[in-house]
Amino acid sequence: MVELTINIPESLKEKLERDKMNLSLIISRLVKQVEEEREMIDWSVKLQHASRRGRFDELKRKGYI
Questions:
Q1: Most exposed: 2, 8, 39, 55, by fewest CB within 10 Å?
Q2: Closest Cα partner for 56 from 44, 48, 47, 64?
Q3: How far is C-alpha 1 from the chain's CA centre?
Q4: pLDDT in tens, 17-28
Q5: Is the pTM of this model over 0.70?
Q6: CA quadruple 15, 21, 24, 26: dihedral positive or negative?
Q7: What whole-number distance in Å separates Cα of residue 62 and Cα of residue 65?
């Protein structure tokens, strides 16, 4: 596991402590969510590229370009 150090404003630190929030857990969940979204973004970009493949040649053949 990788260790991550972050700086947060003192006011946020006080709020987290007062509300007994586990910052480590929050950050872990955030990282997991970003990883899941990254997979979805990569998939959607690949899908978009596949749908556009050959489109330029088709438009050129039809005389639009």
A1: 2
A2: 64
A3: 20
A4: 899 988 888 888
A5: no
A6: negative
A7: 8
| Amino acid at residue number 24 | S
Q: How many CA atoms lie within 13 A of 54 on its CB side?
A: 2
Token pair in block for residue 57: 């040649």
Query: Is-contact 27 4, C-beta < 8 A?
Result: yes
Given a contact cutoff of 8 angstroms between Cβ atoms, the answer to whether 46 and 37 are in contact is no
**CA–CA separation, 49 vs 55, rounded Å?**
10
Residues comprising the chain, all counted: 65
What sign does the dihedral 6-7-10-12 (CA atoms) show? Answer: negative
- Which of 39, 42, 35 is CA-nearest to residue 2? 35
CB 16 within 8 A of CB 23: yes
